[in-house]
Automatic annotation (TrEMBL):
Keywords: Hydrolase, Protease, Serine protease. It catalyses: Hydrolysis of proteins in presence of ATP. It comes from Mycolicibacterium grossiae. This is endopeptidase La. GO terms for molecular function: ATP binding; ATP-dependent peptidase activity; serine-type endopeptidase activity. GO terms for biological process: protein catabolic process; proteolysis. It is an enzyme of class 3 (hydrolase). The keyword RNA-binding does not apply.
């Protein structure tokens, strides 16, 4: 072997080693970037994203797209460098996305609870905006438990032992006057218009000295139709605002978006307050690439949103559901809207 070939081989060794490191070594970072968007007025896999059954819905047009952030986990050193160099994605420490003190099952369970809470809040905020009256509403039924098979999520409780319960305080006061083993006769309304009466034998719970009914309840606006959100854990709590807007649009005459392509993001409380989210600049990029012309930005994200420089998007500041509906109507009419 001559000296030139030997020199070449020696020079190639660190290059080969570095190449192996790039492709084989994983780094403790997660890549974040623009994710897919979904039209809450449209369909996914043959199902309406916001499916309302049991009442008349109005025709809609245009788009009300919720936006997401993509995540790349388990990335190699080479992939991390490529993401960093792209200028489109960012790298964040993995511990910020997947806390090391929690197992995957714990994280999945917390995410599922967040999705369910977000959907409930979106429904309640929309129904409240539409002036549906409040009722003592069953949020969940313990399985197993005294009420399993007798009450269902979404039931409105009207009477307990023939005594009206107009709010959560009245319901709780009646329950606190019981003891384990007592029987309660509960009159309820169920989605779809059914009225029912059921007798429930109270159980016991070490956290209280009164009878255990085995349900969680809340004061919430109630309607006799059902609202289902069919995105299977996509979007998380940040989809709340767009879900609420879709419900309002489908239950009212006219188009909230004026037939335009509106996208946005934001958490929502059951009384309609819009909250901040993460990844706003990635979501704006996703919206612009999907064709949106208007983007709804939670008020607390406005400062960050202005750094995205997505000039094709008209930004509308979102503080409450009522304010956003009014702003969209103003935009459709060519009037000034609250911007970031």
């Amino acid at each position: 072997m001559n000296r030139r070939i030997l020199t070449l081989l020696v020079a190639l060794v660190p290059i080969l080693v570095f190449g192996m490191l790039l492709s084989a070594v994983t780094v403790p970072f997660v890549g974040l970037g623009p994710g897919p968007t979904f039209d809450t007025l449209g369909e996914v896999d043959g199902k309406e994203v916001v499916d309302i059954e049991g009442t008349e819905t109005k025709p809609t047009s245009g788009h009300l797209n919720m936006t997401t952030v993509s995540q790349s986990d388990g990335i190699t050193l080479g992939q991390a460098l490529a993401l960093w160099a792209s200028g489109r994605d960012q790298l964040v420490p993995r511990a910020l996305v997947y806390p090391p003190d929690k197992s995957k099952d714990e994280i999945d369970e917390a995410n599922t609870a967040d999705f369910k809470s977000s959907e409930d809040n979106a429904e309640y905020a929309a129904l409240s905006y539409l002036k549906y009256p409040a009722a003592v509403t069953v949020a969940s039924v313990s399985e197993p438990g005294p009420s399993a098979g007798k009450l269902q999520d979404g039931d409105a409780i009207d009477l307990v032992n023939d005594k009206p319960v107009a709010n959560l305080d009245e319901f709780t006061a009646l329950l606190k006057a019981t003891k384990p083993g007592d029987q309660l006769v509960v009159d309820y309304r169920r989605k779809g218009g059914d009225l029912g009466t059921t007798t429930i034998t109270l159980g016991d719970n070490p956290d209280r000295d009164y009878g255990f009914l085995g349900v969680s309840v809340q004061n919430a606006p109630w309607a006799d139709f059902t609202i289902d959100f069919n995105l299977a854990n996509i979007g998380g709590p940040s989809a709340g605002l767009m879900f609420s807007l879709a419900v309002v649009d489908k239950l009212t005459t006219g188009d909230l978006n004026g037939g335009e392509f509106v996208a946005g993001t934001g958490t929502i409380t059951d009384d309609g307050k819009v909250g901040p989210i993460g990844g706003i600049t990635h979501k704006m990029t996703a919206a612009a690439e999907a064709g949106a012309t208007v983007f709804l930005v939670p008020a607390e994200n406005c400062a960050e949103a202005k750094t995205a420089h997505e000039d094709s998007l008209t930004l509308i500041k979102a503080e409450t559901l009522t304010q956003v509906v009014d702003a969209l109507k103003a935009h459709s009419a060519g009037r000034e809207t609250p911007g970031c």
